[in-house]
Amino acid sequence: MTEETEQTEVTVPNPRTRLVDRLVAVKKDIGAVGKGDRNSQQGFNFRGIDAVLNAVAGPLMKHGVMVYPCVVSAEKGTATTSKGSVMNTYLVTVDYTFTDGSDFLTTRVVGEAFDSGDKGATKAMSVAYRTALIQALSLPTDEPDPDLDSYEATPITQMSDAALFAEIEARTEVDKVKELWGEQNIGNRSAELQNAIKSRVATLQGQVSA
């Protein structure tokens, strides 16, 4: 019996090809990367790091290009959510170098992430890498341009001080009271109105915690 061995064709990149031409070829092979992931909390679609890497990894290897990160800076902090939870925040600045072994191109991006545990730094790096790949390779989404549709927003009527004082006291939810600040441009109005909103928020928060 004769065994037949299946031969896999491997494309060897021409060493004389310029790095920029390799990247153009990579972009051509990738095409579009759609927004297939969904943020259920804030209700928007996005391109996750896995989707981008799955689309990019093969073409990069095919054309002999590697990408290396170098963290320029990393900042850790904390932030409080609207529900009162304390989250860790991470902000990283990273240089990503695209190279074919003889030439290189470097792009600098930032990545930001929030996390309640110990994964914030990893998330921020993933955001930065995804951003670098999308922007350096100009990867389209192949989706309709949001500017195809235009809408006219209905202006919010500015209430008189007297009406606004009454509205502040009438609202029974902290978030609804806070909304008045932006809706009624409270930052540019009287100190009495500003103090009224702050006082109402404090009162409602005290009722919740009591």
Structure description:
The protein has 210 residues and is an alpha+beta fold. It folds into 2 domains: 124 residues, DNA repair protein Rad52/59/22 (Enolase-like, domain 1, 2-Layer Sandwich); 53 residues, no CATH class. It is 39% helix and 22% strand. The chain has 6 helices and 5 strands. A 3-stranded antiparallel beta sheet has the order 3-4-5. Strands 1-2 form a two-stranded antiparallel sheet. Strand 1 and strand 2 form a beta hairpin. Helix 2 crosses helix 3, helix 4 runs parallel beside helix 6 and helix 5 packs antiparallel against helix 6. It starts with 18 loop residues before the first helix and ends with a helix. 16% of the residues are buried. The N terminus is likely disordered.
The proportion of strand residues reads 15-25%
- Measured as a percent range, the helix fraction is 25-40%
Integer average pLDDT: 81
CATH third-tier fold name of the largest domain: Enolase-like, domain 1
Report how far the terminal alpha carbons are from each other: 84 Å
Oligomer: single chain
Strand order of the biggest β-sheet? 3-4-5
CATH superfamily caption of the largest domain: DNA repair protein Rad52/59/22
The CATH class of the largest domain is identified as: Alpha Beta
Summing up helix and strand content along with how strands pair, one would put the structural category as alpha+beta
List the helices and strands in order: HEEHEEEHHHH
Count of individual beta strands: 5
User: Which sheet architecture does the biggest sheet show?
Assistant: 3 strands, antiparallel
Q: Can you tell me the residue ranges where pLDDT is under 50 for at least 5 consecutive residues? A: 1-6, 144-151
